[in-house]
Amino acid sequence: MNRIDIKSAAEVLGALAHENRLKIFLLLVESGPDGISAGVISASSDLTPSSVTFHLKELSRTGLVKSRQQGRFVIYSATCKYIAPILEFLHSKCASLSADC
Q1: What is the average per-residue pLDDT within 70-91?
Q2: CA within 13 Å, CB half, 29
Q3: pLDDT tens-place string over residues 15-50
Q4: Alpha-carbon distance 52 to 76, whole Å?
Q5: By the 8 A CB rule, do 66 and 60 touch?
Q6: pTM across the whole model
Q7: More reliable by pLDDT, 98 or 26
Q8: So what's the pLDDT on residue 46?
Q9: How far apart are the first and last CA of the chain?
Q10: CA distance linking residue 40 with residue 55, whole number of Å
Q11: Angle at 52 between CA 48 and CA 54, to 5 degrees
C-alpha cells in the first residue's frame, strides 16, 4: 500500500477539485483499463477537445491518468493507485476527532 504525504494528497485532491476534471476522471474509471480516446471523452462530456486535452494534462501530471498510443489515437485510462492512500490518509487524520468521521 502506498503511503502519501500532505503535499502529494493536496496535489491529487487539487486536480480532482475541478468539476470537469472530476467528470473526466470518473468517466475514465467507468471505461476500465482499456481506456478511451480524448475524442470519446469530449463527446461524452460536452467539453471541447482542447478543454479535454487541458484537463487530461493536469490529471496526467498528478498520476491519476495514464496514456498510450494506439494507432493514430492516444488512449487514456484512470490510475486509482492514489485514491485509497488518500482516503486512508484523510481517515487517519479525522478518526481521532469523532466516531462520525
Answers
A1: 92
A2: 12
A3: 999 999 999 999 999 999 999 999 999 999 989 999
A4: 11
A5: yes
A6: 0.87
A7: 26
A8: 87
A9: 22
A10: 14
A11: 115
For residues 49 and 16, give the distance between their C-alpha atoms in angstroms, rounded to a whole number. Answer: 19
Three-state SS sequence of 27-45:
HHHHHCCCCEEHHHHHHHH
Average pLDDT over residues 85-99: 80
Q: Which of 69, 68, 78 is nearest to 33 (CA)?
A: 78
C-alpha cell recorded at residue 67:
496514456
DSSP annotation string for 32-98: -TT-EEHHHHHHHHT--HHHHHHHHHHHHHTTSEEEEEETTEEEEEE--TTHHHHHHHHHHHHTTT-
pLDDT score recorded for residue 1: 40
CB 82 within 8 A of CB 64: yes
